[in-house]
From TrEMBL:
It comes from Fibroporia radiculosa. GO terms for biological process: negative regulation of canonical NF-kappaB signal transduction. InterPro entries: NFKBIL1. Transmembrane segments: none annotated. This is J domain-containing protein. Keywords: ANK repeat, Nucleus, Phosphoprotein, Repeat. One of its GO terms (cellular component) is nucleus. Its main location: nucleus. The keyword Nucleotidyltransferase does not apply. The keyword Phosphoprotein applies.
Length: 242
């Protein structure tokens, strides 16, 4: 064994090779860490300042957009008021018998006729709603009272208060109840109007009211209530088939 060592491994004078001491890398790492720790507040402050600038810019942009929106809305509302005021003035002038004129001072026949047609339509709608509101008011007043009532006190669903059963027919009842539905902006359907009227005119629902009718009108009032109820049921059936 000793001879093998002597012949296989040459021995030379010199130094053993060892890795460099680890103290240098640890020192470098510690120095870098300390530098990061020292710089962290400054970096964080820079991030905060940039975020603040972005937030301020966003807020200013949103505020500007909101201001532009409000200004546009105010301009739109002002123009709408001006158009409405001008239209009211024109309609008052036409209603009084005047004629409109164009930008060159010539008579504007087309525009004048359009306003006259609108005035007629508005007047008709006002008439229908006034009549219907009066009908509803009469019913509320009648139900709230306790005094005796006659045939003439009943708010019959016809345009003109009837004096007899001859004036209380199905065509008159249909026209009175459904005419207000032609008013622009109405949201009530024919079915809804007829259903509500059937509930109101049902003889059983009016039993308490009928007890207040004076003796001499009791028969004709009862006959009228039953007739109106039949007309309404027939009208409901006819609409249901359409």
């Amino acid at each position: 064994m000793s001879s093998l060592l002597k012949t296989s491994i040459p021995w030379t004078k010199g130094y053993f090779a060892f890795p460099p001491p680890a103290s240098d890398s640890r020192t470098h790492f510690a120095s870098a860490t300390n530098q990061l720790i020292a710089e962290e507040p400054r970096v964080l402050q820079e991030h905060l300042e940039r975020a603040k600038l972005v937030a301020e810019a966003t807020w200013k942009e949103e505020a500007w957009q909101e201001r532009c929106r409000r200004d546009a809305q105010r301009r739109t509302e002002r123009l709408e008021r001006e158009r409405t005021e001008a239209l009211v003035g024109e309609m008052a002038w036409v209603r009084a018998g005047g004629s409109l004129r164009d930008a060159l001072g010539r008579r504007d026949v087309v525009r004048t006729e359009q306003l006259r047609a609108e005035i007629r339509l508005l007047d008709e709608e006002q008439r229908l709603m006034t009549r219907w509101n009066a009908y509803e008011t009469r019913w509320r007043t009648l139900i709230a009272a306790t005094t005796p009532i006659s045939f003439a006190d009943i708010p019959w669903p016809v345009i003109h208060s009837p004096h007899s059963m001859d004036e209380l027919h199905s065509g008159a009842v249909e026209e009175f109840l459904l005419a207000p539905l032609r008013v622009r902006g109405n949201t009530i359907t024919k079915r809804e109007r007829i259903r509500a009227s059937i509930l109101r005119w049902h003889p059983d629902k009016l039993s308490v009211l009928l007890q207040r009718v004076v003796q001499e009108d009791a028969d004709v009032v009862r006959e009228g209530v039953n007739a109106v109820f039949r007309y309404l049921k027939a009208l409901q059936d006819s609409i249901g088939k359409n």
